[in-house]
Structure formats: C-alpha cells, structure tokens
Amino acid sequence: MKTVYFNVHDGLVFSEDSIAGEEALSQGRALKALAPDNVESWRLSYDVITQQVSVYGGIEKSNQQAAEQLTASTITKKAEENDSALLLRKNSEKNEAEAKLRRKQLLASKLAENPNLREQLISVTIPE
C-alpha cells in the first residue's frame, strides 16, 4: 500500500509526494489515505462520505484495461452527444424550412386577395 494525498474539495488525487502532501494536509487542502500500489493515480479518488479510496474500473483490472474502459465510455458518450446535436440541428433546419414555406404561402394568399399589393411591393425600393 502507498500513501496518497487527496483534494478535500473533489476527492481527486492531490499528490503522491509526501512533502507536498503533508504541506497541503497541514493547510486543510488535502486528506491522507492508503491506496493500492499497483494502481495509477488517475484511477484513484476519495469518497468523503464513506471515507474510502475508490479505484476506477475496480482493483482487479489492470491500468490498461481501465484506460480502455474509460476510452470506450468516452467514445460512446461523445457519439451520443454528436447524435443529439445532429438531431437538434436537423430539427432546427426543418423548423426554419417550415417557417419559410408558411411565409411564402401567406404572401401568396395576400397577393391573391389584393392584386394591387404586387405592384406596391414591386415599386418599393430597398436601400443599399
């Protein structure tokens, strides 16, 4: 087992260095706990409620397996975010197209009701 210092605010590893860790501990910025030797620090966190060290991916997995699991879950999450963004963009484009069509239909109906309106619209000059 090795001594690891964890950040009191988020439970992530603060340091494995005893000098920096003890200084942060004395300032109330870190907690001191024991962690397994064969686990890289990025996999460790401290749960302040249970007062236990948590290991991402579990203690039985190797660092490589945990990294692959993290990568796979990150890729899945990114794909879901991209799908959501694409769906929102498609819905937005569809709504814009429908609104444009409604405006055209409204203009066409107004022009059909009032033939003089067409001449008035043609004679209007648009400032440049």
Describe the structure.
This protein has 128 residues and is of the alpha+beta class. It folds into two domains: 2-55, no CATH class; 63-118. Helices cover 54% and strands 18% of the residues. Strands 2-1-3 form a three-stranded antiparallel β-sheet, with helices on one face. The protein has a two-stranded antiparallel sheet with strand order 4-5. β1 (2-7) and β2 form a beta hairpin. α2 packs across α3 (115-123). The termini are far apart.
Query: How many H/I helical runs?
Result: 3
Strand order of the largest sheet: 2-1-3
* Large-scale geometry: elongated
Which spans have pLDDT < 50 for at least 5 consecutive residues?
A: none
Q: Tell me roughly what share of residues is in helical segments.
A: 40-55%
> Helix/strand-derived class?
alpha+beta
Q: Please, what is the average pLDDT? A: 78
Proportion in β-strands: 15-25%
Span between termini:
76 Å
SSE pattern, N- to C-terminal: EEHEEEHH
Radius of gyration: 31 Å
The strand count comes to 5
Total tally of structural domains? 2
Taking the sheet with the most strands, its summary is: 3 strands, antiparallel
Oligomer: single chain
From the structure above, extract its key features:
elongated, 2 domains, 3 helices, 5 strands, 128 residues
